[in-house]
Amino acid sequence: MSQPATTRRLAVITGASSGIGEAFARAYAKRDTDLCLVARRLDRLEALALELGQQHGIMAFAVQADLSKPEATDLIVGALAKQGRSCDILINNAGYSLPQTFLATKGREQIDFVAVLVTSVVSLTHALLPAMVERGYGRIINVASMVAFSSGAAGHTLYPAAKSFVVKMTQSLSAEVADKGVILTAVCPGQTESEFAKANGTDQLIAKSGLYKQTAEDVVAIAIAANEAGKEVVVPGWPNKLAVAFMKILPDSWTAALIRPQAKKFSLPDPKA
Ligand SMILES: NC(=O)c1ccc[n+]([C@@H]2O[C@H](COP(=O)([O-])OP(=O)(O)OC[C@H]3O[C@@H](n4cnc5c(N)ncnc54)[C@H](OP(=O)(O)O)[C@@H]3O)[C@@H](O)[C@H]2O)c1
Question: Does residue 270 fall inside a structural domain?
Fold first, then answer.
């Protein structure tokens, strides 16, 4: 059956089943944008697609995909083709963190982590970018973190490296395609209300920290505004901006000395041997 023609843009949002990804879905639905919602928890995605479709009169559909698996990109591309749609806006948002030290985790866990936070971002972007360039229109928001600018520390071992990768990838791609109508932005939030800490078991530690925290809705509003303004990198919230400014100015050894004791407070202790 042929699909009815629509003039609405379509956004592919990974990690749309909770937190920042769900907030992106709500924000784009309000902007009359169709949605392709990606994550593993299909029940949540379908409920959100139904709710936003009814509320805003947009077309929203769910794609169940585990982004640690190499076939995830083909699944998403196939789902778009089945709907007769292409991606105008890509939000690479899915992510999590492993709060233990490297050796306290299984090698497979670290490899899957890199697959979700790094490889799938490369793979999905590489698959969807050519059509954006061809049409002369594309918007890509990559969800990084303010820790992209921090020193590495014990626990959450590869998280800062993965988020630095996302920032640098965004800048390099922007240099390559900005003149072709594709605008890329890396958003680098600090603590944000979501299921992130619950998912990795550090919610009690975060709750005790009293750190400055933003809502997912605020982070998303800032990210979309920055993308529309053509900004390559945005750090939401002035306390986070200040912290990043210090991290950029200070010598690495000073940042490490400041960050490492703090990072311990948000890591889980290794199980006793
Ligand atoms: N919250 C913060 O303080 C904070 C700060 C800076 C940056 N960030 C970044 O913000 C992004 C969103 O996180 P959040 O805070 O919104 O956390 P969240 O509420 O836990 O959401 C994480 C999302 O990622 C999806 N996801 C995780 N593993 C996946 C996999 N293997 N395949 C497909 N989807 C997967 C989850 O969906 P399923 O479980 O249904 O698959 C969920 O939708 C992440 O990239 C995170 O690193 C968060």
Answer: no
Q: What average pLDDT score do residues 22-29 get? A: 98
Percent of the chain with pLDDT over 90: 87
* Residue 128 is assigned to a structural domain of this protein: yes
Indicate if ligand 1 lies below 6 Å from the C-beta of 96: yes
The count of domains in the chain is 1
Ligand 1 atom closest to the Cα of residue 41 is 40
- 214 CB less than 6 Å from ligand 1? no
Q: Return the ligand 1 atom nearest residue 193 CA.
A: 1
Tell me the per-residue pLDDT of 38-49, one tens digit each, with 9 for 90 and over.
999 999 999 999
C-beta of 69 in contact with ligand 1 (< 6 A): no
What six digits make up the tokens of 158? Answer: 């590869």
Residue 4 lies in a domain: no
Tell me, yes or no, whether 271 lies in a domain. Answer: no
Q: Which domain does 33 fall in, by range? A: 10-264
Contacts of 98 (CB under 8 A, 6+ apart): 105, 109, 110, 113, 156, 157, 158, 159, 200
